[in-house]
């Protein structure tokens, strides 16, 4: 989530280019941060079983922070999620930007638009544009 949010903030607010290296650093820092939190929990863990779980978690997070393939996969997934979220937001903004039904003039001009549409000679229009594409 932190990586996805960073991609969105960098693109939308800060107008920064996409940077795999910076994101890899962020993933590494996030794993280390989680490992530090797990390590702090060791100080308050009372049972031997919980201690073993916390130690395993801490070690696993430290190893994950050094796993280039895992970090790359996390970045790829975050990028897909970020662009999906950005795309959804853009589509929503475009829909809100112009709603013809909400424009009273749109309804008033409807008959005129339909009348003009019926007067178009589509065969002539097509012939005039032959070879353009």
Quick description:
With 133 residues, this protein is mostly helical.
Main β-sheet: number of strands, strand sense, barrel status?
Answer: none
Euclidean distance between termini CA atoms: 45 Å
Over the alpha carbons, how many angstroms does the gyration radius reach? Answer: 28 Å
* Count of alpha and pi helical runs: 7
When the domains are counted, the total is 1
User: Which structural class do the helices and strands define?
Assistant: mainly alpha
Give average pLDDT, whole number. Answer: 90
Helix content: over 70%
Q: Which regions have little confidence, pLDDT < 50, spanning 5+ residues?
A: none
Shape: elongated
Give the total of beta strands: 0
Tell me the series of helices and strands, N- to C-terminal.
HHHHHHH
Strand content is under 5%
Characterization of this structure:
The chain is mostly helical and 133 residues long. It has one domain (2-100). Helix content is 77%, strand content 0%. The chain has seven helices and no strands. The longest helix has 30 residues, at 68-97. The protein starts with a helix and ends in a 5-residue tail after the last helix. The mean pLDDT is 90.
Write the layout of secondary structure elements.
Elements: H1 2-13, H2 20-42, H3 48-64, H4 68-97, H5 104-108, H6 110-118, H7 122-128
Helix pairs in contact: 1-2, 1-4, 2-3, 2-4
């Amino acid at each position: 989530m932190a990586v996805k949010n960073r991609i969105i903030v960098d693109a939308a607010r800060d107008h920064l280019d996409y940077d795999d290296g910076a994101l890899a650093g962020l993933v590494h820092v996030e794993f280390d941060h989680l490992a530090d939190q797990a390590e702090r929990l060791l100080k308050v863990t009372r049972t031997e079983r919980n201690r073993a779980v916390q130690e395993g978690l801490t070690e696993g997070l430290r190893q994950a922070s050094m796993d280039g393939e895992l970090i790359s996969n996390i970045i790829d997934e975050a990028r897909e999620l970020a662009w999906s979220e950005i795309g959804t937001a853009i589509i929503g903004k475009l829909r809100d930007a112009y709603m013809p039904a909400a424009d009273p003039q749109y309804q008033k001009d409807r008959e005129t638009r339909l009348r003009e549409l019926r007067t178009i000679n589509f065969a002539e229009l097509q012939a005039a544009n032959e070879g353009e594409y």
